[in-house]
Amino acid sequence: MLMRHGMTLFRYLLTLLFLLVIFTTSTSYAKKAAIVIDFDTKEVLFEVNANTKNYPASLTKIMTLYILFDRLEKNQITNQTKLKVSRIAASRSPSKLYLEEGSTIKVEDAIMALIIKSANDVATVVAENISGSEREFAKLMTSYARNLGMTNTTFKNASGLPNRAQLTTAKDISILSHALISNFPEQYKLFNTQKFTYKGKTYKTHNKLMLSYEGADGIKTGYIRASGFQLAFSAVKNNKRLIGVIFGGDSGKQRDRSLKIIMDKEFAELGINKKEIKKTIVKKETKKINPNSYSIVVGTFKYRNSAEKQIKLIKSKYPKTTTAKKSNIVLIKVSGKQLYESRFENFSKKEAYTACKRLKKYNRDCFIRS
Question: For FRET with 97, which of 4, 201, 299, 349 sits at 20 to 30 Å CA-CA?
Answer without folding.
Answer: 299
